Amino acid sequence: AEGAIVLLDQPSRLVRAAQRGAPDGVSIFGVRELASPGLPSHVFASEAHFRSVRVHRALATLLAREAIDRIEFPDYDGLGFVTLKAARLGVGPALPRIDVRLHGTLERIARGDRRELLSLADKQRAAMERYGLRHAAVIIAPSQDVLDEYRCQYALGGEAVIDPPLVSRPAVRPMPPAGSGPLRLGFLGKIQPIKGPELLVRAAVALLEAAQAPILEIDLVGSDAPGRFEASHRREIERLIPKRHSDRFHFHGPLPRHEAHRRMAGCHAVVLPSRSETFGLAARELASIGMPLALSDVAAFRSGFDEARGPIERFAVDDADALGAILARWVDSLA
Q1: Residue 230 in contact with residue 265, Cβ under 8 Å?
Q2: 96, 69 in Cβ contact below 8 A?
Q3: If phi over 0 gives left and psi between -120 and 50 gives alpha, with beta otherwise, what is residue 277?
Q4: SS3 state of residue 20
Q5: pLDDT-based confidence at 313, cuts 50/70/90?
Q6: Where are the alpha helices (DSSP H) in 99-162?
Q7: What share of the chain in percent tops pLDDT 90?
Q8: What contacts 311, CB < 8 A, 6 or more positions away?
Q9: b or e along 100-125 (b: 16 or more beta carbons within 10 Å of the residue's beta carbon)?
Q10: pTM above 0.85, yes or no
């Protein structure tokens, strides 16, 4: 927005790149350039606490230079923890209103990844995120369904507004394979348990086993992430695929945005079986160009698709049988 000031806690080279590409009227500053030298990170119990202190010091420098009437923090990493604490205690410079925008907290990601927070650093980070949510002046949510989910999980009251992010339509159009060949499916997102790619693989393998024919082909686009039991969720998924079907699954890794959209547009349909989402940008971008979608029934996918140009199928979270039934119908429609 015109007059906005963006504070980035990123290496200087990334800050400079963002400054070069900033829209007119938007100022971008780097935390590391503004924050005064202080205690080294190793004296803090977590990197998140250290970053929150550094962000607060950078804000104090910025407030001395600029007229700022509102501060907005994301909910993740507890970045606003120290600033909110200072505001509540009346410590340091006078602070304007502090809001928190919902993106996805560590606790929600861990729950979607089906893992516990065991380390002291993770527990502190989660506590800092909870503090930010409970003491923000206003919670900014992408949808009412997601806000309701947060209110239930974190026992949140107080003021909130619904402000969905803008969705830019990808510069591609659906161009599925011609003919009655195998059903080509896409998956776009991190190869991470919270995104549910293994659910798609389980449903697809079951269908391939039942048909005893190469009726499916799957393109998975996204960077690998830690799994439930080892450092690579992709390796965990690959173990689910019998060798005789391995040529049906293509892991492309992370791709540039346009290339990722082009790859998805070359499929008959895209499956997004997430266990949790806060907005679901990929689903909305693909819906805007008319891609047929199969979406899990998470809060973020329940509204905001009124202008979708293609059909949308829905299935219960973690229900591989229900997803398999959708895939079977799609296979039959190509016959």
Answers
A1: no
A2: yes
A3: beta
A4: helix
A5: very high
A6: 106-112, 120-135, 144-154
A7: 84
A8: 292, 293
A9: bbbbbbbbbbbbbbebebeeeebebb
A10: yes
